[in-house]
Amino acid sequence: MRIAAFENEPEAEAAAIMLEERGYDSKVVTKDESSYEQKVGDFFKGKQRTFDPNALVISGNAEYEPFMRAAQRHYGFVIRGETD
Predict the structure, then answer these.
(1) DSSP 8
(2) What pTM, to 2 d.p., does this model score?
(3) If pLDDT is split at 50, 70 and 90, which confidence band does 7 have?
(4) pLDDT of the residue at 80
(5) CB 19: neighbour CB atoms within 10 A?
(6) What is the pLDDT of residues 11-63, one digit of tens each?
(7) 15 and 71 Cβ atoms separated by less than 8 Å
(8) Cβ neighbours, 10 Å, residue 8
(9) Residue 68: left (phi > 0), alpha (psi -120 to 50), or beta?
(10) DSSP state letter for 62
């Protein structure tokens, strides 16, 4: 199983779509907290904050390289890269 963390749900969704287009399974899991719109508003108000992962992309059959590229291209990072 491979897992990547993303700060925002839209980036996680885009990475999942990229994986699915290449024939891999993927699932996006989000935590309920502030919405994407609130985060964007805070950004433009100049509020500083640290990276807070709010979405995960999980795949059971993606190869490491395509999974890593999908995560990186959509501003995420791999937190578990091996397979079981």
Answers:
(1) S
(2) 0.74
(3) confident
(4) 87
(5) 25
(6) 999 999 999 999 999 999 988 666 667 767 877 888 776 667 889 999 999 99
(7) yes
(8) 20
(9) alpha
(10) -
Strand locations in the chain (E)? 2-6, 27-30, 55-59, 77-80
Residue closest to 12 by CA, chosen among 67, 63, 82, 83: 67
Contact between 76 and 12 (Cβ < 8 Å): yes
> Residues in the chain, how many?
84
CA distances from residue 37 to 10, 20, 43, 60, 62 in whole angstroms, order as listed: 11, 26, 10, 30, 30
Structure tokens at 28: 């996006």
Please tell me the distance from the alpha carbon of residue 16 to that of residue 53, in angstroms, as a whole number.
16
Instruction: Quote the tokens at residue 30.
Output: 């989000």
Order of strands across the sheet with 55-59? 27-30, 55-59, 2-6, 77-80
Token reading at 18: 């990229």
